[in-house]
Design a protein that fits this description.
Elements: H1 2-11, E1 19-22, E2 28-31, E3 39-42, H2 55-64, E4 68-71, H3 74-85, H4 89-100, H5 102-125, H6 129-133, H7 154-168, E5 176-180, H8 186-195, E6 198-203, H9 206-218, E7 225-229, E8 242-248, H10 259-269, E9 270-282, H11 291-296, H12 306-312, E10 318-325, H13 327-343, H14 345-352, H15 354-372, E11 377-385, H16 396-399
Helix pairs in contact: 13-15, 14-15
Length: about 400
């Protein structure tokens, strides 16, 4: 009786999954509320010294010594073991909060940086829809395009980038999609049109917000797509939950200090096993931030380091499924932008002045050179929240036409 009580106490340390224990005398004991997917069968009564405080060690040695066997697939056995030896999500995030000083970071973010972040976005993106529309293509996509052929027009390449991105997310009708930093809304509109998903875009730019609302109405997807003028950190995860999430060109505005906060928030907004497509410019190694760029073009901007992001993902239970460099595509995108910009220089000069035109010309040409020479890169990284074995086995569907 004492040994049975000790074993019951031991197995009740495992809080996840349902399984049964069959004792040496035929008695059975179930753990969990659902029908057991596996059983631990004792062939004989163990010695008291065989029962240790470590569940995995106890059962591992017992199996080695022939004291127990398992009934059920070993995938279920190993899965149950890992589910229970990993910390619970709440405990995991408590630990992460301590490790990254989350409470202090969140307090500082709310008290000091919220207004600054909005100001930074306003300074760059709210120059006016009329300004950007002069040299962007009709999709108003202000991020890396995807050139399937060198002869593709900029509009073709931007439309291809949107579909390339959406294919990676394996969208299904009726699912919910969050676009963090949605720009002028082309992605959420196309997701709603083609896949009939409920797509929500988030932006801090008033100009982009108005542009996205107009685009949604023009394409007749008012019931499926919507845009919110708000900070993604203000989304209440008890009310907002999404099957899939995407973020294109927004991570660069988060800042090094808040990268853990960003990933933690996305984790909370995603449903279990959800997919997250992160598209961001990154550096291969830490280097000094371009002071001219942050002063005149992207105030508050920071390019994450690829290896540091790779180290952060598992801390928030994100698992890399697919990663693709679009460096050469961005160099070509910037080349198209600059060629378009040159065509409207006289109009822009009248509106903003010659110094502004020279500044933006330097920005567009300098970025093209930075991508062309490999000093910076841009990655699309597909991640799953937790382990998801239900997604496509290969990436063939991404490139099918």
């Amino acid at each position: 009786m004492f040994k049975k009580a000790a074993i019951k106490k031991l197995v009740n340390k495992w809080k996840k999954g349902s399984f049964g224990v069959v004792f040496w005398d035929g008695d059975e004991y179930d753990v969990g509320e659902e029908k057991p997917r596996l059983k631990i069968i004792f062939h004989r009564e163990p010695q008291i010294t065989d029962i240790k405080s470590d569940v995995v060690m106890t059962f591992g040695e017992a199996y080695m010594h022939g004291v127990i066997d398992f009934e059920g697939s070993f995938a279920d056995v190993i899965g149950t073991m890992f589910e229970n030896t990993e910390a619970e999500d709440d405990a995991k995030f408590d630990s992460l909060r301590k490790h990254f000083h989350f409470d202090e970071i969140l307090k500082e973010y709310r008290a000091e940086d919220r207004a600054k972040e909005r100001e930074n976005i306003h300074e760059h993106y709210d120059l006016g829809n009329d300004f950007f529309s002069q040299w962007l293509d009709p999709t108003m996509c202000y991020s890396c395009a995807y050139f399937e052929h060198p002869t593709d027009t900029l509009q073709q390449a931007q439309e291809q980038k949107i579909m390339h991105t959406l294919r990676k997310l394996e969208l299904h009708e009726g699912e919910s999609l969050l676009d963090i930093g949605c720009g002028w809304g082309w992605l959420i509109v196309k997701a709603a049109e083609k896949y009939r998903v409920h797509a929500t875009g988030i932006t801090l730019s008033e100009e982009q917000y108005e542009g996205a609302k107009k685009l949604i109405h023009e394409h007749g997807v008012d019931g499926l797509a919507d845009v919110q003028l708000m900070n993604y950190m203000d989304m209440d995860e008890t009310k907002w939950k999404f099957d899939k999430a995407v973020s294109i060109g927004m991570l660069e505005h988060v800042g090094e200090k808040y990268l853990p906060l960003y990933l933690a928030k996305v984790h909370r907004l995603l449903k279990d096993n959800g997919l997250f497509l992160l598209h961001s410019i990154m550096k291969e190694k830490e280097s000094t931030t371009n002071s001219w760029m942050t002063e005149y073009i992207f105030p508050g901007g920071y390019l994450p380091v690829e290896s540091k992001m790779m180290a952060l993902y598992p801390e928030f239970d994100f698992h890399v499924v697919h990663m693709e460099s679009l460096r050469r595509h961005y160099a070509m995108t910037l080349h198209h932008w600059y060629e378009n910009f040159k065509k409207c220089e006289s109009d822009v000069t009248k509106e903003y002045g010659e110094e502004f035109v020279r500044m933006w010309g330097l920005y567009l040409q300098g970025c093209e050179a930075a991508f062309e020479t490999g000093h910076i890169d841009v990655f699309q990284t597909l991640l799953t929240k937790g382990i998801n074995n239900d997604i496509a086995m290969t990436g063939d569907h991404i490139y099918e036409r």
